[in-house]
Each structure stands twice: as structure tokens, then as C-alpha cells.
């Protein structure tokens, strides 16, 4: 196994690696500096997705320690019939039509066969496992409730059904969960190092769902998916606030330690928006490796490479002590993040991230 694998695994064990690992992720085919790759094509052609991720790695001046592979997160919804408008390689295609429009539509979903409907996503994993020569990589697995809310159906339908038609919604979530479990297991069988499990993306679940609803409809199904791949060496939980809100609102889930309920090895959230790194390390450090520290907008998108280096140095000072820390962004990078800022993260980690033996 590669040095990078050992380094990442030491962080996952909450141990001290030889230096702080780093990872940056985005919708890689939808990034202007990666010419010749199509985000639309990557959603239906596993090789296109794998090639775009490999092109990103080749574009860098340094070797990244952990690659997060990012499909269009509605890739399962597409197979159930939802339609999205792909335009100009834009990373966020608009929703044109969703499969579940009425409560009666939930029962029309079927469990997707990872070897049939989802084969292209698996082909991406298969190619990367062969071509990355032991470099660790994790594939993105979206939470079932997030898939239901944003892709299979729409927020108004799902929130209404939680109250008025919970059994119909549960039936739909059961199918989405089983599909996600079957797919995640195949991702591991094809040679991925682990999963990047995203919860919360694109919406307002943190304030809109009650504690009981979050426990049933988010955690309840999420846990089943994560337990099904319990042996995966890397299980990274991403607590998303891309929808504009965070889990510190209306209940303070993050700082209460609620995410310890998730059977994962590492957590990632937008520490520029809520819960600073050192605070999270204090709360979660005995359970999880901490992943984060660079502001994806103000620093990575808008800052100079000197700003980026200074931010990485600062993050390492705040969360690097004792190991068990990976430098990363709080969410997917903006497509226009300059390549030199990717390199600045790597350079800073080399300069400031060494642990003395
Ligand atoms: Zn996110």
C-alpha cells in the first residue's frame, strides 16, 4: 500500500501520521481548468467520471492524499426517472421533473441493481481502483432522505408526507435505502477505500425537521447504510450546509455531540460557518478524525495562494495536535477555484504539517 494510504489510515485510527494528510474535492468534470471533460457525460459514463478525476490529480503539482470521487448526487434519482437540465457544463443542473409527485408514487420505486442501472458509477470505481495504484479514494454516497428531498421528489412533497402519509414515505425511503446499501457494498467490492456519506445537502433539514424526525428519517436510514459498509477502512460523514443553514441552528446538534450517533471514522462540516475546528476536536476528537479547516469560498475561491497557505498553517495549529486531522474544505469546491490554490494547500501541508518522530 502507498504512503498516502498509511497516512490516511493513521488519521482514521486517530493516530499520528508522518504528516497531516490533505484532500480537496469538487464536481471535477465541471471545472474549467479540466478541459475536455463533460459533467453531463460523466453522469452516464463511468469512464468519463474516472478520467476527469485522474486528470485533476495529474494537474496538481503535489500528490493529494485522499481522493473524494463526486458523481452528480442525484445519480440514483436519474435512474428512477427524474430529469435534470444539463447546461454549459454547469455543476448544478436544474430539476425538470421528479419521479415522486404524489404520495402514491413512493411505492412505484424499485430497488436499483448496482450491476445494471448503476453500472456506470461502479465502472468509475473499478477504473480508479486499477489506475490509482493504491492511492486511497472514497466514493460519495448520498443520505436516503436527502435523495428523497432533492431528486427523487421535492421538499414540499416529503415534508407533507412526513405528517400526512408517513407510511407511503417510509416505503419510498425503504427502497432508496436498500438501493443505497446494495450500491455502497458494490463500491467497496470494486476496490474503493471507503465512502463519503453526505447528509443535509441542498436544503434546510436542520431547522425544518424536528429532532424526532431527524432521528427517524435521517439517522435511522443513514445508520443502516453505514452499518452495511461497516468494514470499509474510511467512512467519512459530511454534514452539509450548502443549503444555507447549519445544524447549530434550532437545537445545536453539532455542539451537543449528536453526530456521535453516526457509525463513521471521520467528520467534515463547514467550519467557516459553524463550530470551529478546535471546538469540534474537543467534542468529537475521542471518536472521529476531524476533516476541514480551509474556507472554500473566502480562502480557496477568493484568496491568493499566500492566504491559502496561512489558513492551512492556522488550521494545523488549531486541530493538528495529536494527529487525527485531515486538511480539507467544508464542502465541494466552487468550480472556479484556481488550480494554484489547490497547490497552495499541498505546499502548506508540506511546510507546516510534519509530525516529529
Ligand atoms: Zn456539502
Summarize the SSE layout with pairings.
Layout: H1 3-12, H2 39-42, H3 46-59, E1 67-69, H4 75-80, E2 83-85, E3 94-97, H5 119-131, E4 137-142, H6 144-152, H7 155-164, H8 166-189, E5 194-199, H9 205-208, H10 211-228, E6 234-239, H11 253-256, E7 266-269, H12 277-284, E8 289-294, H13 296-301, H14 305-319, E9 325-329, H15 339-352
Parallel strand pairs: 1-4, 4-5, 5-6, 6-7, 7-8, 8-9
Antiparallel strand pairs: 2-3
Helix pairs in contact: 3-5, 6-8, 7-8, 8-10, 14-15
Bound molecules: zinc ion.
Largest pleated sheet = 7 strands, parallel
Bound molecules: zinc ion
H and E string: HHHEHEEHEHHHEHHEHEHEHHEH
Oligomer: single chain
Q: How many distinct domains?
A: 1
Please tally the β strands and state the result: 9
Radius of gyration: 19 Å
Low-confidence stretches: none
As a percent range, the share of strand residues is 5-15%
For this structure, what is the CATH class?
Alpha Beta
Percentage of residues in helical conformation = 40-55%
CATH topology: TIM Barrel
Throw out a few tags for this protein.
7-stranded parallel sheet; 15 helices; binds zinc ion; 357 residues; 9 strands; single chain; globular
Can you describe this structure?
The chain is α/β, with parallel strands linked by helices and 357 residues long. The protein has one domain (3-352): TIM Barrel (Alpha-Beta Barrel), CATH 3.20.20. The protein is built from 15 helices and nine strands. The strands form two sheets. It has a seven-stranded parallel beta sheet, sandwiched between helices. Strand 2 and strand 3 (94-97) form a beta hairpin. Helix 6 (144-152) crosses helix 8 (166-189), helix 7 packs across helix 8 (166-189) and helix 14 (305-319) crosses helix 15 (339-352). The structure holds zinc ion. The site of zinc ion (ZN) has 6 residues, from loops. The site of zinc ion has 6 residues, from loops.
